[in-house]
UniProtKB/TrEMBL annotation, chains A, B, C, D:
This is Formyltetrahydrofolate deformylase. The active site is at D230. It comes from Ancylobacter mangrovi. Catalyzes the hydrolysis of 10-formyltetrahydrofolate (formyl-FH4) to formate and tetrahydrofolate (FH4). Gene3D superfamilies: 3.30.70.260, Formyl transferase, N-terminal domain. HAMAP family: PurU. The gene is purU.
Length: 287, 287, 287, 287
C-alpha cells in the first residue's frame, strides 16, 4: 500500500554510526527501507540522508514514530523531517505577466504528476491577464505593487502563506524583487526561476544581452530565494544550444521552454523531499 | 590517508535488516562510512549497495575484514566484493583498425584519470597500424584472425587474460564478433562500445544507414559482452545532435567523439566498482 | 513591415544556375532577401532552398509574383511554394486519452508562439476527458472508433480536414493506427510523435520495455506519417538521461516532457516552411 | 575531384543584389555551387556568406578567380577570402602544464580529421613535461616566462608565428595571460579555451569555485582572443551535468572532456572557414 510509506530526511555533522543508528531504529520499529540515498560531504564534514520506508507489518503511526526517533535525532544533532510519501504539499504561486510556468505547474498538478495542491495564485497583474487559464476554483489574488504599497503587499503575501498553510512559495516568473524581510520570512521554502547564461549577465533584458554577446547556449536556474538576489542555493539548471540565427525573440521563446521544465523539476525535487541544504549549496537526491 | 579506504559492493535479495547489518558490521569493525549508495529494485526484489569506508583508527586489514564479513554475507545470500579504493585494475584492450578509443584510454590511464594498468594491447591488425602511439612499454600482440584460425586466436586471447591477470577486457572498437565460448569466458568482465541510433540499425556501415534514414541524433552504447551480440547489459549511453548537413563521413567523425567518451565513462564506472548487474540490466552508482 | 515578407521554398534536381536564377528573379521583382538557406544533397543530386524576402519598395502582390516565378520554376523542374511569412496555418489535432501534447499546442498557439489556428480537435475519447482544458471555442469532435466503424471514422476525419481547410494534421498522442488510405490521404501534411529508444522497441508499453532493457537514455521522434507505421521521414528528435532509479512510471513522466517539446518543435518547423522532403528523409532549416 | 573545390567566405553591408552578383559571377566563371550558407543580420544590417564551389568543366585557377572577383567585392565593400577546400591550415599550439587539449589536437590532425599542419608547439614548461607524447617530428619550443622576460618571450612567439607561416594560434590550455600587444598582433587568428559556468566566476581555481557555489552544470567556451581577457567573440560552447557527488577534482576531470571537444570543434570551424566575425560576435556556419 503506497500510502503507508514515509520519507525521513536528515542532515547532521558526519560521524561514525549514523547509518547504523537510523537503520536499526527502522528495523526495530518494524519498518522496511524501500529506497535510501545518502551523501557525506568531505569538505563540510556533514552527512545527508533520505530514506523511504514502509511498515513491514501494517500501518505506521507517524506521531509515534516521530516521538521514538527524537532521541536518535538528538544524539547526532540532526535536522530532520518525517513526511508521508505522496502526501500533497501546499503551494502558493506568485506570477507576473508571463504565465508559461504558471500554466505548466497547474497542468502538472492537475494530472497528478506533481504531488501539490495549489492553494492560491498571486499576481501583481489583474485576473484579465489570465482569462484563458482554467483556474478550476483556485483562489486568485491581484496584489498590485508600487514603491509605496510594497511593504503592505508583501505583508499580504505572508498572510496568504499563513492563511493557506502553504509549505512552499513558487516565484513562477514573478518579476518583483522580494524585500530582504520577505526573503527571510520565506527562507528555505521559496523557489525562484531565472535565466542563466555563460557568461552571466546582470540587469534588464537578459536574453537581448545574451544575443548581443553571441553566446551559443542559453539556460535557466531554479534556486531557493535568499536576500542575495538570484544567488540563492541552486536546485536545478538546464541549457539549450542556440546559434547566430536566433533573434532575441527566439531566445525568449526557447528560454520559456527551459524555464518551465527547470522550475517543474525543482518543485518536484522540493515537494518530494529530495533537496537538502548544505550551506549555500544543495544536495539533491535524484529520482 | 586515501589508500586505507575500501569499497564494499554487494547485491542480494531485498529483505529487512540489510543496511542495519552492514552498517553495524562496519561500525564494530572500527570503520567509518565515507560514501554509500544503495538501490532497492521493487520489481526484482533485489538490493544493491556500494559503500566506501575507511578505518577510523588506522589501517584496515582487508583479509581479516573479508573473513569477518563472511557470516553477514551468508545470512543475506549476498554476491559481494571488497576492494581497496584507488587500487588499479588490470585491463586488456582489444582493438582493430580504428584506434581513437585505444589512444583515449591510454591517455586517461597515463595521466592517472583512470585507475587502470593496461596489461596488453591485442589487435587483429599489425603493429605498423599504430606506429604513432607511444605504447611506452605496453606489450602489443598481433593476433590476426581468419575463419580457420579464430578458435585458436580466441584461445590465445583467453590465455593472455589469464597470463596478465586482467580484471577487465575492453573491446575498444574491436571489429571481430566474439564466439559464444569467449563471450561466456569473459562474462561480466568484458565491455564493448558500439554506435546507437533511434531507431536502431543492424548490419554493416551503420553510420551510412543512419544517414540514409535521416535521423537527427546519433549515439553510442557501452555494454557488457554476452553471447547476444550488441545486446548485453547497458552501462552507459550518450548522443549528439546532427542535421541534414552531415555526410556519412561526418557521422563517423562525430561518432568517434561519442564512442570514446561513452567507453571511457563505462570503463571508469566498472573499475571503480560502480556497476552491479541486475539480471540483464545494470545498476550504476554515479560519481 | 513584417506582413509584407514572403517565404519561397523549393526543391529540384541540382544543376548550375539555380541560385543565380532565383536571386536575379527576386532582384528584378524589386525584392530583398532577408534570410536564405540552401542545401545541395551530393548523394541524391537534389537542391533545396528556403528564401525569406520582402518588397524593397513596398507591398508585394503574391499572385503576380507566383505567376512571374512560374517560368523559373519550370526551367529547373522545381517543387515550390510561396507563402506569406507569419501567416497562420490551419491545424487539426487528433488526440487520445493523454492530453499533454494537446494542452501544450493550444497554449503555444494562444500566446502567439506557434503561428497556427487550431481548426478542430478530434478524439476517440469523449469531451469529459478534457474538461479542464479551456478550448476557448475550438470545435471538439468525439469520433469513437471500433474495428467496424474505423473506415467511417477515418472518412469523417478526412471530411473535417477538408471542411476546416486544415493545412496540417497533428497526431498529438493519437493512439489509433491510421489506415494506409488515411495515411496516403494525409501524405506530407500529418505529423506524429512517438517515443524513441536506443535500441528501439516495437509493441505495447514501450516505456516498460525500455525500463526492462535498462537503457540510459529515452527519447521521442516527430515524423511525417506514412503507411509504414512509425517510420516516416523524421523531423525532430530529442532525448533525456535516465538511470536505474527510474521506474516505468518515471519514464512515462519524463517521456511526456520530451514528447511535447519535440512535437512542438516539429510543428513549428513545418508551419514556418522549414521542412523539405528529401526522399524518405527531411531537410530542416533551423531557426 | 575534391581538390578542385574552393571556399568563398565574405561579409559586407547588407543590401539588395549580393546573392545575385555572387551567384552570377560563379555561373559565368564556369563554377557550380556545392554548398552555400548565408546570414543576414537584421540588427547590424550585415550580410555573411560561405560558398563552396567547384569548376564545372575542370580545374579552377584560384589567382585568376580572385582577380576576377575583385570588382564584385569592391562593389559591395566585402571582406572576403577564397581558399582551396581541404587545404591544410598551419597551426601553432601554445600549451602549459595540462596537455589534454594538445594531445587531442595532435591526434585529430594525425588521423586526418582536422585539416591542419601543426607547425610548432610552444610551452612555458620544458619538453620533459610531454615525454609521453609522440611529437613525430613537430618542433617543440620551450619558452619559459617571468615578469621580466615576458616581452621577449611574446616577441619570440610572434616571430615563430611568422617563421612558420602559422594561419592560426591555438591556446590549448596555455595559462599565461597574453599582453594587449600580443593579443592585438594575433587578432582574428588566435583561439582560446576556458571553463564556463552558470553563473560565471572570475579568478583562480574556477572548478573549485563552481563546486563551492553548487552549480549543476559545468561548461567550456572557445573564443577568439582579444585584449579583453576571456571575453573575445565566442565560437563554441558546451556543458555537462554534475551533482553534489562531484568533488572539485571530478569537476576538473569532467572539465577536461568538455574543454577538448569544444576546442576541437572551434578549431575545426575556423580552419574550414566556417567562422565569420560580426562585431564582437561570430557567425558559425555548421557542418
Amino acid at each position: 500500500m503506497e500510502t503507508s510509506a514515509f520519507i525521513l530526511k536528515l542532515a547532521c555533522p558526519d560521524r561514525p554510526g549514523i547509518v547504523a543508528a537510523v537503520s536499526h531504529f527502522l528495523l526495530h520499529a518494524g519498518c522496511t527501507i524501500v529506497e535510501a540515498q545518502q551523501f557525506e560531504d568531505p569538505t563540510e564534514k556533514r552527512f545527508f540522508m533520505r530514506v523511504v520506508f514502509a511498515g513491514a507489518g501494517g500501518e505506521v503511526e507517524p506521531a509515534r514514530l516521530r516521538a521514538a526517533f527524537e532521541p536518535v535525532a538528538a544524539q547526532f544533532a540532526m535536522q530532520w523531517s518525517l513526511t508521508r510519501q505522496g502526501e500533497h504539499k501546499k503551494v502558493l504561486i506568485l506570477v507576473s505577466k508571463f504565465d508559461h510556468c504558471l500554466v505548466d505547474l497547474i497542468y502538472r498538478a492537475r494530472i497528478g504528476e506533481l504531488p501539490i495542491d495549489i492553494t492560491a495564485v498571486v499576481s501583481n497583474h489583474g485576473a484579465e491577464n489570465y482569462r484563458h487559464i482554467d483556474f478550476g476554483g483556485l483562489p486568485f489574488h491581484h496584489l498590485p505593487v508600487t514603491k509605496e504599497t510594497k511593504p503592505a503587499q508583501e505583508r499580504r503575501i505572508l498572510e496568504l502563506v499563513e492563511e493557506t498553510g502553504a509549505d512552499l512559495v513558487v516565484l513562477a516568473r514573478y518579476m518583483q524583487v522580494l524585500s530582504a524581510e520577505l526573503s527571510a520570512g520565506l527562507a528555505r521554502r521559496c523557489i525562484n526561476i531565472h535565466h542563466s547564461f555563460l557568461p552571466g549577465f546582470k540587469g534588464a533584458k537578459p536574453y537581448h544581452q545574451a544575443h548581443e554577446r553571441g553566446v551559443k547556449l542559453i539556460g535557466a536556474t531554479a534556486h531557493y530565494v535568499t536576500d542575495d538576489l538570484d544567488e540563492g542555493p541552486i536546485i536545478e539548471q538546464d541549457v539549450e544550444r542556440i546559434s547566430h540565427y536566433d533573434s532575441p525573440e527566439n531566445l525568449v521563446r526557447k528560454g520559456r521552454d527551459i524555464e518551465r521544465r527547470v522550475l517543474a523539476r525543482a518543485v518536484r525535487y522540493h515537494v518530494t523531499d529530495r533537496v537538502l541544504l548544505n550551506g549555500h549549496r544543495t544536495v539533491v537526491f535524484p529520482d
